[in-house]
Design a protein that fits this description.
The structure holds two protein chains of two kinds.
Chain A lengths: L3 E2 L4 E5 L4 E7 L4 E9 L6 E7 L4 E3 L3 E6 L4 E6 L8 E9 L6 E3 L3 E6 L1
Parallel strand pairs in A: 2-11
Antiparallel strand pairs in A: 1-3, 3-8, 4-5, 4-9, 6-7, 7-8, 9-10, 9-11
Chain B lengths: L4 E3 L2 E4 L5 E6 L6 E7 L5 E8 L2 E5 L7 E4 L6 E5 L8 E8 L9 E2 L3 E5 L1
Parallel strand pairs in B: 2-11
Antiparallel strand pairs in B: 1-3, 3-8, 4-5, 4-9, 5-6, 7-8, 9-10, 9-11
Classes of the chains: A mainly beta, B mainly beta.
Chain lengths: 113, 115
């Protein structure tokens, strides 16, 4: 079966708050992880990625944390804005040359003004 | 900003009919993919394509599915005899560096409805 899953299907936050979206994975062979944002009616959009030799990576307003000990991935969004409302997917890629990304089920983030 | 474009945006077909979904990847990309998303579910890998051949496919991608790059710009997904369970959003994606980058650029999808 698929190895990527999510703890919460929905998350509602107030504008300006920080958001944390979580993802659990079970395949220790995965060495590359990506967060995607999917707005309604659109395709997934790359947000940030991290390789397994890192614990943390920061982008603009976003931070991804990787805890390999407990196989946990999180996406932190600082100062969440209404435009951040979307479904967020984590995805993993296994080492060994596979082209395949395995996606989680997604967390729907709603930002309330 | 370069983008992946897909046509049609929505296609309705009868069960058993053939469907061709079209994609124009980003022009200098070399790796091409199809994913699908059944309504309310997660995105699933179908197939990857590089150097004019399939490099990897999932168990979903059975003999009813095929891909082709008929010219230098288009990348198509054909379903020979559609089934009800093929109803989904189909996303084309392309990458400049394959899994080394992992950064896929997705199109906006083609919604397939099989009646």
């Amino acid at each position: 079966g698929e190895s990527v899953g999510l703890h919460l299907p929905t998350l509602s936050v107030q504008e300006g708050d920080n958001s944390i979206i979580n993802c659990a994975y079970s395949n220790s062979a995965s060495d590359y992880f990506i967060w995607y944002k999917q707005e309604s009616g659109k395709g997934p959009q790359f947000i940030i990625d991290i390789r397994s030799n890192m614990d943390k990576r920061q982008g603009q307003r976003v931070t991804v944390l990787l805890n390999k000990t407990v196989k946990h991935l999180s996406l932190q969004i600082a100062a969440t804005q209404p435009g951040d409302s979307a479904v967020y997917f984590c995805a993993e890629n296994m080492k060994g040359g596979s082209e395949k990304l395995v996606f989680g089920k997604g967390t729907k983030l709603t930002v309330n003004p | 900003e370069p983008e992946v474009t897909q046509t049609p945006s929505h296609q309705v077909t009868q069960m058993g009919q053939e469907v061709i979904l079209r994609c124009v990847p980003i022009s200098n990309h070399l790796y091409f993919y199809w994913y699908r998303q059944i309504l309310g579910q997660k995105v699933e890998f179908l197939v990857s394509f590089y150097n004019n051949e399939i490099s990897e496919k999932s168990e979903i991608f059975d003999d009813q599915f095929s891909v082709e790059r008929p010219d230098g710009s288009n990348f198509t997904l054909k379903i020979r005899s559609t089934k009800l369970e093929d109803s989904a959003m189909y996303f084309c994606a392309s990458s400049g560096r394959g899994r080394v980058s992992g950064e896929l650029f997705f199109g906006e999808g083609s919604r397939l409805t099989v009646l």
